[in-house]
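Section 3.1 - Work completed
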Amino acid sequence: MKLHELSPVLGSSDKRHRVGRGMGSGNGKTSGRGHKGQKSRSGYSHKRAFEGGQMPLARRLPKRGFVNIFARPKNEVCLSVFEAFDNGAVVTVADLRAMGYVKQCKYGVKVLNTGGFTKTLTIQANAFSKGAAEKIVSLGGRAEVV
């Protein structure tokens, strides 16, 4: 099979709708825009979430709490994830990405104290929960903040 022989599966794509091509087409004269009004004019566009002058839904709903727009959220990783590594290994964020435990590591990784953990490892991460750091050290490992 060659690139020029490829075609879409039958029924997966429709023909382009050609408007303004005579009354017999079913979309002549006003071309499906109706009569008069803002939406019938050429060049009409509206902002996202514009509701025709009505108070937008995002402004009608009550707001609670505080959202820090400067927050840099870290990816969270459970301690049980580190069971996959060998005893005595040095585990870095790059290792976690290679194993597929962390997808995008924009602001770093935080290790949380959840799940079973029995290995002696040196774990290098951007942050540790208090319980996770204590558990790692109690098993003879090291929790290094990078």
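Second construct:
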Amino acid sequence: MLRGKSLLEPMDLTVEEMEEIFSIADDIMSDPGKYIHCADGRLMATLFYEPSTRTRFSFEAAMHRLGGSVIGFSEPNSSSASKGESISDTVRTVECYSDIIVMRHPKEGAPRVAAESCKIPVINAGDGGHQHPTQTLTDLMTIKKYKNRLDNLTIGVCGDLMFGRTVHSLIKAMSRYKNIRLKLISPKELVIPDYVRKEVLVKNGVEFEEVRRMEEVLPQLDVLYMTRVQRERFFNEDDYIRLKDTYILDTDKMKLAKDDMIIMHPLPRVNEIAKEVDRDPRAHYFHQVKIGMYVRMGLIYSLLGLEV
């Protein structure tokens, strides 16, 4: 049972628990009307210390579609954080009003501090360049839906691999499945951190290759996971400008890819996927957004121990 648990990183859930969430999300997709009142009287608090569109709206839509309500803030200046209140005091206060907390924070580890400070479930909606577990659940369910499996895959991850929390979470999660081959595509300035390379890939015996050119590996891929170069993670604007357009997926490059390769992106995109690619039947990043809402509905349903 997942009831009462917090979700701070992908490895907090077993493969079986993730499958349980996917099963619930699948059922919600097929019969949403069955779930519209299961969270009546329940309240979710969204504490977003960092800007977000998709993740915050996805969580709020998920809770509303389950029949629950939402309170919260979308940036710290509208909360007592601007007065210097600690995370611990904020969540202990919010716990008095709500049944579950969703937190996004620019500092790695902040959601863990929150979870240790209260007795209700806390969901990490992204902490700095560290983890983004609900995006990972979304990514896994998207891959499963369009590739019919989560093993025996060659996955290309392209862009900002140093600061990309969605990338770190996805690599961690995929390391538990069999015969996964990762092609890590990035400029030398944005390669994956050593701790991911050593503690996840090497330690788990995951086959991986680090490359600079997307075209080298594109024909081999079953999944291409594109990411943007994140302006907000750079201290030097010149470095961002120099690197931001390193990889642009366009229709010419897509001619190199398999007919059944799928393209994913955690969004928002900037220039890394040309708009013309949106018309390609292999592009699934907007389907990913929709799946994300259902995954979060399944997660909330499970952590709150709801019933239909």
